[in-house]
């Protein structure tokens, strides 16, 4: 029985890692839909989010069941509680990728992102995908050092978002109001995906060390 | 010992209710800062968010401690797990109110919201405050019927957000690009506060009945 329990606990962590892979693919594909103006890819991201939500519900249920039946102690309880919190972050990241795909679909056959910001969004997406990948590896390998990389990447994400705002203030925005609104919301979605990746990194450090990383190095999410 | 445990469990729910009161005040004050262009109120909301985050950490810690020491069963475990999830929602709602206050501060002494949208944001804020209040009462009184009201209010919030978008598409937006960007993000923040209130309502129904409310009546959050 004890062995079954251990393998069920590991199964939950594995499911979180698989979920992070799905989120990474969703971010990649949502960006393809957005920047390459691809409607069928947009539809695929939106329908895949239903699957991510199903995994979310499954993991949440499994973690709760183990708590209810196994009387987990210290490190195991910490893992289970953190899993319930991390599965919420991953579910939310999937929703945000779907939001990006929905804007791509809404503007089709036009591209929501104007020419001058395509590069900016490609970079945002690349950093977001990196961060989801790091979060997944941190989880899979219980590697607190790897988690530190999230801090640097998050700084780059913030810089890209600031670049967007700099273009939109003042009077020299060469595109439409509608495009500005899309850029503002899309930028927000990518930034939030990055925030959730940081939160997963922090929670994994908490699982490993029993302490949440604090201080100005670690951004609040 | 058992009696102490029961009172500690009740204390956690009480803290969540107090936190929902703080969030409701933060939303009210952030809107005052935004629409009445009041810098000192904006500063107050931003610094109060630190206090909300402290309550968040305290409740999360207390719920975890009870799980670790008391071996909670069925309904109690459900309450503790849901408390950890709901405290995250409330913490996030406080952050969103602080985001509104930060935009008010950034644009001071100008008003971020242009004349034609002041009424719209007053209505958004009023609905958001109502919804936080309902979520708090649902929690305090374990009243699943009261939670149903959140669905209707959330529909009204969505309608107000659609009204904003209708004004910003096409070519007749009479204000600046910067104002459009502010409206888009501010609208998003109020809408997210409403979403979190709905999530709290759903989780409270789960505590009471053991089932999450599903179906198209209940918006996904």
TrEMBL record, chains A, B:
Gene Ontology biological process terms from the UniProt entry: intracellular phosphate ion homeostasis; negative regulation of phosphate metabolic process; phosphate ion transport
Subcellular location: Cytoplasm
InterPro entries: PhoU (IPR028366), PhoU-like_sf (IPR038078), PhoU_dom (IPR026022)
Main location per the UniProt record: cytoplasm
Protein name, per record: Phosphate-specific transport system accessory protein PhoU
Summary of subunit composition and partner proteins: Homodimer.
Primary role: Plays a role in the regulation of phosphate uptake.
Keyword line: Cytoplasm, Phosphate transport, Transport
Keyword Membrane: no
Zinc recorded as keyword: no
Annotated source species: Propionimicrobium lymphophilum ACS-093-V-SCH5
Family under the similarity heading: Belongs to the PhoU family.
A single cellular component GO annotation: cytoplasm
Pfam families: PhoU
Domain (PhoU) ranges: 19-103, 122-203
């Amino acid at each position: 029985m004890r062995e079954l329990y251990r393998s069920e606990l590991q199964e939950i962590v594995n499911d979180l890692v698989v979920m992070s892979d799905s989120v990474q693919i969703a971010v990649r594909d949502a960006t393809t839909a957005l920047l390459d103006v691809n409607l069928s890819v947009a539809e695929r991201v939106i329908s895949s989010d239903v699957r991510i939500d199903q995994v979310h519900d499954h993991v949440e249920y499994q973690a709760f069941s183990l708590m209810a039946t196994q009387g987990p102690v210290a490190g195991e309880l910490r893992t289970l509680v953190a899993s319930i919190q991390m599965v919420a972050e991953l579910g939310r990241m999937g929703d945000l990728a779907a939001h990006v795909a929905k804007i791509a679909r809404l503007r089709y056959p036009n591209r929501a992102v104007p020419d001058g910001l395509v590069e900016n969004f490609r970079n945002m997406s690349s950093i977001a995908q990196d961060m989801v990948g790091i979060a997944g590896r941190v989880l899979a390998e219980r590697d607190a050092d790897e988690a530190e990389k999230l801090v640097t990447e998050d700084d780059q994400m913030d810089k890209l978002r600031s670049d967007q705002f700099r273009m939109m203030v003042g009077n020299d925005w060469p595109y439409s109001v509608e495009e500005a609104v899309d850029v503002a919301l899309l930028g927000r979605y990518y930034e939030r995906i990055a925030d959730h990746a940081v939160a997963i990194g922090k929670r994994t450090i908490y699982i490993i060390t029993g302490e949440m990383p604090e201080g100005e190095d670690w951004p609040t999410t």
